[in-house]
Write a sequence for this structure.
């Protein structure tokens, strides 16, 4: 479904990703983990086509988003993507209802009745009935994440990207978000990519895990394979120890 | 030997890099401008967003624009009457007030006030949208931020600026009339007839063309500074300041060239 091939990306003299390759199978969820600042979110933005790699290619459903020259072609490929941003990235000036309906109106250009039907369905699924008329600043961060999820799911994307879905949440609320991802996946059956540095919590929604360090993927496999890895960096990251090859910046 | 030259080479390198950065920024801003223009002339146009921005930039600025117009006209009447009295020509106070406002002060003061009030707000709003990933969210949903965010703001600025300048001029002339006739004792007929005989459509066109160009500068600079805003509160602070300074200086510099060109063109 998503094929990341030999991607490299630098900002000025700082190399963020170096020859990264990753295959994400349809219907499966892959977690990309690693310490803060190793380029996980950059990888996500490369998949979205918001950033352009220095080298390499990313295919989504067989179509290259990195080689697409026209913004309209990129937009066509992006139509199969949904994204839940770290801070949910809801539009401040729109109500929860309008935020959820945004993609249906602006991207799919659906009629009012169809928009209302689809928004009501997803609002019902994610228990957001009490919040539809409120503005994003009037709801909690956890609810904002649910709204962000609803906004992504309402257009029925084939791929859903999650950028640190638990950022800014307490452990209990964070668990709710993971439950939400699991339940939504069971209902909508999307392919997922979850960017996170929270281990082992993220394993509960992951079929596969890839760990990035120093701009490269140092370990990839199932959550069990990662847990049993002897790689010193993986062991240090899993244990949360300050001693080891990972330098805390 | 090399070490003797290294400070000079480093300085040259820094200067070169600085110049390249300026050229790159200049190039980016022009690409951004042309993308907005393409967005303005090709569908789809989101008219509801345009009207919302007309409300924000136009209607919400009207009161303050009218207020500064009223007092500018009043000041012009006092200064005009004082200066013209030295030449025994106080009858021309109406012409002086009207021509100053229509040709120069109306468009310029309106532009500076709108840049300070609405331009900084646009830059801050777009900057915050950028740093809170709302712009990325638009792109991830296959919605072009230039068309969705910039085009309505730019167009509203271009349309609202001449309207606001007209309001400023009309209220300014009214302010001048009140002071000249009501307080300084000039004859109402003299004020109005001198104004009517001195002001031509050329003067009005000249003022409106200036306001239109200032509207383009306002929209371009405020949107560009917001769209390219740096990260964090410092980034928004810097972008907002740059917006007000760049747009205000650009208005005053371009005003000089426009005045020269339009005066010469209309004289011919």
């Amino acid at each position: 479904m998503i094929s990341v091939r030999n991607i490299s990306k630098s900002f000025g003299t700082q190399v963020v990703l170096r020859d990264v390759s990753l295959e994400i199978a349809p219907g499966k969820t892959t977690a990309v983990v690693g310490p803060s600042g190793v380029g996980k979110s950059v990888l996500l933005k490369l998949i979205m086509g918001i950033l352009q790699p220095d080298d390499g290619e990313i295919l989504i459903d067989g179509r290259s988003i990195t080689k697409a020259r026209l913004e309209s072609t990129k937009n066509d490929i992006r139509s199969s993507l949904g994204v839940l941003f770290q801070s949910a990235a809801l539009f401040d000036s729109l109500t929860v209802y309008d935020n959820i309906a945004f993609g249906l109106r602006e991207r799919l250009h659906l009629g009012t009745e169809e928009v209302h039907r689809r928004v009501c369905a997803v609002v019902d699924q994610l228990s957001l009935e009490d919040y539809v008329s409120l503005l994003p600043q009037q709801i909690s961060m956890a609810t904002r994440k649910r709204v962000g999820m609803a906004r992504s799911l309402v257009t029925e994307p084939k791929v859903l990207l999650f950028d640190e879905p638990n950022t800014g949440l307490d452990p209990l609320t964070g668990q709710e978000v993971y439950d939400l991802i699991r339940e939504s996946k069971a209902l909508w059956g999307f392919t997922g990519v979850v960017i996170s540095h929270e281990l082992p919590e993220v394993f509960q929604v992951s079929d596969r895990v890839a760990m990035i360090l120093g701009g490269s993927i140092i370990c990839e496999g199932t959550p069990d394979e990662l847990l049993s890895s002897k790689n010193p960096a993986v062991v240090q990251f899993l244990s949360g120890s300050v001693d080891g090859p990972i330098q805390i910046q | 030997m090399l070490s003797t030259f290294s400070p000079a080479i480093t300085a040259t390198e820094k200067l070169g890099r600085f110049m390249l950065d300026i050229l790159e920024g200049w190039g980016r801003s022009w690409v951004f401008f042309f993308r907005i223009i393409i967005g303005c002339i090709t569908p789809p146009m989101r008219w509801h967003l345009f009207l919302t921005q007309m409300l924000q930039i136009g209607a919400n600025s009207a009161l303050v624009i009218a207020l500064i117009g009223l007092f500018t006209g009043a000041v012009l009447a006092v200064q005009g009457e004082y200066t013209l009295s030295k030449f025994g020509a106080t009858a021309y106070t109406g012409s002086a007030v009207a021509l100053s406002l229509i040709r120069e002060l109306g468009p310029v003061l309106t532009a500076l006030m709108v840049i300070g009030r609405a331009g900084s707000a646009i830059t801050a709003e777009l900057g915050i949208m950028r740093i809170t990933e709302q712009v990325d969210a638009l792109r991830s949903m296959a919605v072009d931020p230039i068309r969705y965010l910039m085009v309505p703001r730019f167009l509203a600025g271009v349309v609202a600026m001449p309207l606001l300048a007209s309001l400023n001029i009309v209220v300014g002339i009214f302010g001048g009339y009140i002071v000249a006739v009501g307080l300084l004792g000039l004859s109402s007929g003299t004020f109005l007839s001198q104004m009517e005989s001195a002001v031509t459509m050329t003067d009005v066109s000249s003022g409106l063309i200036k306001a239109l160009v200032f509207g383009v500068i306002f929209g371009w600079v405020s949107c560009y500074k917001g769209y390219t805003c740096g990260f964090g509160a410092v980034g928004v602070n810097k972008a907002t300041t740059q917006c007000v300074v760049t747009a205000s200086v650009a208005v005053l510099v371009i005003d000089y060239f426009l005045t020269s060109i339009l005066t010469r063109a209309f004289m011919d």
Observations:
- Chain A has eight helices and ten strands.
- Residues 171-188 of chain A form the longest helix (18 residues).
